[in-house]
Amino acid sequence: MTSYPSEKEKVDTHSTHSIDEKHHFHGAPDGSSIVEGSEGVTEHELATLRHVADRLPYTSWLVVIVEFAERWTYYGTTNIYNNYIQFRLPTGSNNGAVPAAARGSNTVAGALGQGQQKSFALRTFNSFWVYVTPFVGGILADTLWGRYKTIMIFSIVCLIGHIILVASATPASLAHTDVALGLLGLSIVIMGLGAGAIKANVSPMIAEQYTGKLRKETLSSGEVVIKSPTVTIQSMYLWFYAAINLGSCGAISASFLARDNGYWVAFLVPTCIFVLVPFVLLFGKKYYVVTPPRGSILLETFRVIGYALAPRWSINPLKTIRGIRAPDFWDPAKPSSYEEGKVPAKITWDDEFVGEVGRTVNACSVFLFFPVFWLCYSQIDGNLGTVAAGMTLDGTPNDLIQNLNPISIIIMIPIFDRLIYPFLRSRNINFSPIKRIYAGFLVAGLAMVYASVLESYQNKLTPCRGGEFDKQPAACEVDGEHAATPLNVWIVSGPYIMVGMAEIFASITSLEYAFTKAPKRMKSVVMAFSQFQTALSSALNFALVAVNVEQKFVWLFGSFAVTSWIVGTIFFLTFRNLDRREAELNSIGQGDRHGFQGETPDATTGMSKV
What we know:
Layout: H1 43-48, E1 50-52, H2 58-78, H3 81-86, H4 115-132, H5 134-168, H6 171-174, H7 177-208, E2 215-218, E3 224-227, H8 229-248, H9 250-261, H10 263-274, H11 276-284, H12 298-309, H13 317-325, H14 351-364, H15 370-389, H16 404-426, H17 433-459, H18 468-471, E4 477-478, E5 481-482, H19 493-505, H20 507-516, H21 523-543, H22 553-575, H23 582-586, E6 600-601, E7 608-609
Parallel strand pairs: 1-3
Antiparallel strand pairs: 2-3, 4-5, 6-7
Transmembrane segments: 128-145, 152-173, 179-198, 237-257, 263-284, 436-453, 496-515, 527-547, 553-575
Keywords: Membrane, Transmembrane, Transmembrane helix
Pfam family, one: PTR2
């Protein structure tokens, strides 16, 4: 049966039209034709007037609050996992806190004493799991519950996981390392399920709150501008990402809480903050633009791909590749390719739906290059924390430094949104999504070069580098303190800041790209596919566990730099043609049609009755 939304739910029936700023006239030669889907904007006006962002609806800010609280709790726990798992309890501590007398030294907080490689493996599994589970939330939202209900249910699941995490870090648990490790593993699984399902739905839900169309507006200065949905969504995701990173600054307090009060307190504070999530969702329920589940087209999408692929397979891989790249690749999946009465029974779609699947697949293939980008990011998540632990701390928690990444992003986002991007648009410089993502790969590579050079220099300053602490801890400690190089720990800030800039270029753009390129009924699933690339990155990291030791950090960082530049360049050369098809790709599946034969749109809800 088809479920219908309640009267309180608002169904988003507007098309999110994105128009390329370098628009070519398709109607009247003088550009007087009205742009389809706009509020009276002519093609000439679209091509000549300045494009600016529209005002963001307040319901978007309510979604931002949800993301802020969820990210605070995520980063407020995961950012201190490295020390929690890797280092043992400081002398005289039963909860991981550094004794007061040792806080101005190089003594670091710790608890489980499992070493660098086990810490890396557990953290990598956590990252992998969190970015696989978005598929669960995406499919449930698109097919069964809708985004709002899915976020609400999994916020409760995530809260349960946080409570178990707190229990794992109590002195009673830490007295039995196996018990603490078991509870930690269980909490990682439960929290990852909840956080991943939320993550797949919050991103599209924030953009769905904006229902404006392309229109003209006169500013107080007298200038007539175009209020552009494209620019609005770009701005929306910039501020959404700012909320993510503002929330991740919760890890600043977590580092000090762990050092001064122990890990159970450090984990308890984010848990209390997470309680805000269901309350904010309940408060905004009657105000949100709520998209109901529209029924899954995921199975039909795979069937379309299967029909198109079937005649292309060959034992000759070159022939297979040529077949996939052929202009008529999708023809076997189109009903029109068959004689009347001979269309296979499993083909329940029309030609237009096949076209939507084809354009969506082409656009989403952009995300397949992102695992390499996230490999670079993963180094600031843990390995650089290990680098920092061997520097002169002067009482600074080594896992505090990684908060420079979100802080730098928070500072840079208003600069990009208010100054850099508007300046480029005013000069008719089309800094398109593909170019922005490419820039992200280049900057991420530079960050890895910085990290490699720094680690190489550090290794020359002390014999206790290169993992010797794990092998001979007594030889590399003096009065309980970790042996340190004379370099101040803040020197390691460079890669964190540069990766932050790379995220603005690549990661934020990927969120924007996933939303604008997905058909309405697949937005959560396509967003999950975008985020799944981080899980693939974590899987690659699993294969690199053997080289994730300090004596190999120099080559590890350096190889990631070269790989990021090479893959980024291949990415740009492969997809630069998509820049010229922005308007076409942004209109995929945004109309009111549903693409299946035999469906009749319901006049009240805009949904289909099969």
